[in-house]
């Protein structure tokens, strides 16, 4: 089980390259850390483990749990410290607040549908708008993995009031 989780963190680290250097760095470290891999076994089935662990930690930091780890988060402090020194603090935070993190891992869900996955929709929406049509968005299907298929289907519709009579 730990090998599967470690591989998820390696893949997540690869996805974070050029996007989130701190999570990329943490992911590769977590993949080799038995204590943190054990912690991740509490994640509910079907949830993306790296996303949920990072969300749980950041949630607790936002909630005011006092720990030096917060000094590395650009969303929490104005001048964050260099992330390459953050992992020992991340690990310590997870140990110190293990029960709180386990509770979040067992009871919360994350939505991994990122805005950038939908960037292709803007040109479609623009074209439909220029044609004078209205939009109807339908969520059709979601696959339980890191990839989503057929998230939104865009159907241009013409209402009777839109048509020239």
What would your notes on this structure say?
With 165 residues, the protein is mainly alpha-helical. It is 46% helix and 7% strand. It has helices at 2-16, 21-30, 34-40, 49-62, 87-96, 98-107, 121-130; strands at residues 134-139, 152-157. The protein has a two-stranded antiparallel ribbon with strand order 1-2.
SSE layout and pairings?
Layout lengths: L1 H15 L4 H10 L3 H7 L8 H14 L24 H10 L1 H10 L13 H10 L3 E6 L12 E6 L8
Antiparallel strand pairs: 1-2
Helix pairs in contact: 1-2, 4-6
Based on the model shown, name its key terms.
7% strand; 165 residues; two-stranded antiparallel ribbon; mainly alpha; 7 helices
Q: Report, as a whole number of angstroms, the end-to-end distance.
A: 65 Å
* H/E element order: HHHHHHHEE
Gyration radius from CA atoms, angstroms: 20 Å
- Main sheet summary: 2 strands, antiparallel
Which percent band covers the strand fraction?
Answer: 5-15%
């Amino acid at each position: 089980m730990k090998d599967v989780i470690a591989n998820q963190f390696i893949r997540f680290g690869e996805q974070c390259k050029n996007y989130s250097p701190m999570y990329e760095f943490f992911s590769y470290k977590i993949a080799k850390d038995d204590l943190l891999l054990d912690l991740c076994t509490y994640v509910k089935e079907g949830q993306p483990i790296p996303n949920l662990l990072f969300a749980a930690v950041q949630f607790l930091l936002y909630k005011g749990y006092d720990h030096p780890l917060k000094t590395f988060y650009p969303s929490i402090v104005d001048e964050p410290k260099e992330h390459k020194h953050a992992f020992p603090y991340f690990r310590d935070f997870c140990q110190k607040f293990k029960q709180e993190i386990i509770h979040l891992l067992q009871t919360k869900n994350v939505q991994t549908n990122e805005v950038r996955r939908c960037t292709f929709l803007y040109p479609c929406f623009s074209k439909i708008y220029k044609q004078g049509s209205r939009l109807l968005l339908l969520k059709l299907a979601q696959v339980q993995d890191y990839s989503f298929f057929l998230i939104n289907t865009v159907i241009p519709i013409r209402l009777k009031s839109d048509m020239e009579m």
